[in-house]
Write a structure and sequence with these properties.
Mean pLDDT: 94
Number of strands: 43
Low-confidence stretches: none
Distance between the termini: 37 Å
Strand content: over 45%
Largest sheet: 8 strands, antiparallel
Radius of gyration: 25 Å
Shape: globular
Strand order of the largest sheet: 7-8-9-10-21-18-17-12
Structural class: mainly beta
Length: 560
């Protein structure tokens, strides 16, 4: 197809590119298109430290994005504070997977979950996942009119002694409201006694100097100045009147961040002769045990008057994961009031003042003049006000994979799910205890053997030359550039004859494919040597028989 023949809406739908780890939420038409996106993947080599970073493109401009070249921040790829994300201290290595992805009427939602891990594959121990060090980020893009929208960011960080949440927009006149700020008269974010760019402080705090300058996880701290701090007691906001944008404002409203300190700083390029000076908004929380932070914020763009007139938290009954509170918000848009709900545990039926009931991952009730105009329930069973609303049997559908045809790119699940043809174009999750991947359904066929789903991506993710075998691993001389970051963790190792298949604990480059001994306690060197002869080629696939396929229940009702 030539570019001239492409339809105008070819790039309009929301997309989830799981191979890259990129979730893109899109809506709007023409000049009013908007996209809220999150990077949850890991790559090898020349990359940012940007796990769970978010970006926003709207009003024909990049509003929120990476900061790298030009005028870079030293060795920029390790400078996590130039993204819009959070980190826990001590710093840990993490990988993330998509948990939710949905377009539901005026709601467009993506969620990713990151876990810390230690790579012990080379020592034949596999990956050691730290269940007490994780992050979860749920992003929601909500349409208000064809021209206007707002976004919600529910961010949870768990583990470590200290959490830092960092955010910046673009250059522009900056104001804040709801903060009783106290100015730090001297120094930088690194401390009142630490001058700008202090190399002694950088060296003492784990940074190193190379050909591209200083680098390290604390690099940004002595490069952020004009520090102001506050301990918020309620909802607060920060507003950027964007430079050269014809009156366009970006406003961030922090609706709930229990126990977090708010910090405002200025920053410019440490490379020198900076063409910009920008405002950073930070939040910090620390504790003696495992620190738990929940930060709920809203983002909007406007000219003249803000889209959001007011925001207030709404208390929900029932604890959520790790003792967090489920999220409830009342968002007054003037002509419409949106009541929003979010939780990680869809099995709990929660109540809230005003006659609300909710059991799910996300819910929204929009009202005009006291009458509902939008009801949206994602991954849930209950969304009601005063007994009126949505009730379903299941929060999600689940089925085991009973057969795979990897050349055809199909999987078979037992039985027939409700409305199977409705799955075409939808994203499904394939998971086991170590792995979770997301694929889009392109076709569905009901057969006597079960329901056959055609998936959009080739499941082959690796191949290697066999050079030997031991009791729990197949040796190979093939380089695996994508190894690490748990890329092959939980995937399927298949021999050249297609007669043997094992779940992987990991792969080393030009070394070996390590088989999960807990899944395959019967392994022996004799058996593997026979199944994987020297000089043959093994293959690695994303999924296999026995993995679970799931998708959330999504219901959207609107009153014209």
């Amino acid at each position: 197809m030539t570019p001239a023949a492409w339809p105008e809406d070819w790039n309009d739908p929301s997309r989830l590119q799981d191979g890259y780890g990129l979730a893109m939420l899109r809506s709007g038409k023409g000049d009013h298109k908007r996209a809220l996106w999150m990077m949850y993947g890991r790559a090898k080599g020349h990359t940012h430290d940007d796990l769970l970073h978010l970006g926003l493109d709207a009003f024909q401009s990049e509003i929120l994005g990476h900061m790298g070249y030009p005028r870079n921040w030293g060795a920029w790829e390790s400078n996590w504070m130039t993204q819009n994300q959070a980190r826990q201290v001590p710093f840990v290595q993490m990988t993330a997977t998509a948990q939710l992805f949905a377009d539901a009427g005026p709601v467009h939602l993506a969620e990713a979950y990151a876990q810390a891990f230690t790579d012990r594959v080379g020592q034949r121990e596999g990956y050691l996942v730290d269940r007490d060090n994780w992050q979860r980020r749920q992003l929601v893009l909500i349409d208000v009119t064809p021209e206007s929208f707002y976004a919600v960011d529910l961010y949870r960080i768990y583990g470590g002694k200290e959490h830092w949440w960092t955010f910046h927009a673009q250059e522009g006149e900056f104001t804040s409201a709801g903060l009783d700020l106290v100015r730090q008269p001297t120094g930088t974010l690194a401390g009142p006694e630490v001058p700008y760019g202090d190399e002694a402080w950088l060296k003492a705090n784990g940074s190193s100097k190379g050909v591209y300058g200083w680098r390290g996880p604390w690099f940004a701290f002595p490069h952020l100045y004009n520090v102001e701090r506050a301990t918020p007691s309620g909802v607060w906001n920060a507003d950027w009147a964007l430079k050269g944008a014809d009156g366009l404002h970006f406003r961030l409203t922090v609706a709930d961040a229990p126990g977090a300190e708010a910090i405002l700083c200025d920053g410019k390029s440490p490379a020198g002769a900076s063409p910009y000076e920008m405002k950073w908004v930070l939040q910090r929380k620390a504790s003696e045990g495992n620190t738990a932070s929940q930060i709920v914020s809203l983002m909007e763009l406007y000219r003249g008057e803000p889209v959001i007139k007011s925001v207030r938290p709404l208390a929900l009954t029932g604890a959520d994961e790790a003792g967090f509170n489920a999220c409830g918000l009342v968002v007054d848009l003037g002509h419409r009031v949106d009541t929003l709900f979010a939780s990680a545990d869809a099995s709990v039926t929660r109540t809230a003042p005003g006659g609300f009931e909710f059991a799910g991952r996300f819910g929204m009730i929009s009202e005009q003049d006291g009458k509902p105009v939008n009801l949206v329930l994602i991954g849930g069973t209950v969304l009601r006000r005063n007994g009126v609303g949505i009730t379903t049997e299941k929060a999600e559908e689940r089925a085991r994979i009973t057969a795979v045809d990897r050349k055809a790119g199909t999987v078979t699940i037992a039985g027939t799910p409700p409305a199977p043809q409705a799955l075409v174009g939808k994203y499904v999750f394939i998971s086991n205890s170590a792995r979770r991947v997301t694929l889009q359904v392109t076709a569905v066929e009901t057969t006597p053997a079960g329901t056959v789903l055609t998936l959009d991506l080739d499941p082959l993710i690796g191949t290697g030359l066999v050079t030997g075998a031991e009791a729990d691993r197949v040796l190979t001389s093939t380089p695996f550039a994508l190894r690490g970051h748990r890329y092959y963790h939980g995937a399927r190792l298949v021999n050249a004859a297609g007669t043997a298949e094992y779940r992987l604990a990991g792969v080393t480059s030009a070394g070996f494919a390590l088989i999960d001994r807990q899944e395959h306690p019967e392994l022996s060197q004799e058996h593997l040597t026979a199944a994987f002869p020297n000089g043959t080629w093994f293959e690695i696939f994303d999924y296999g028989v026995g993995d679970e396929l799931s998708w959330p229940t999504i219901i959207s009702l609107s009153q014209p």
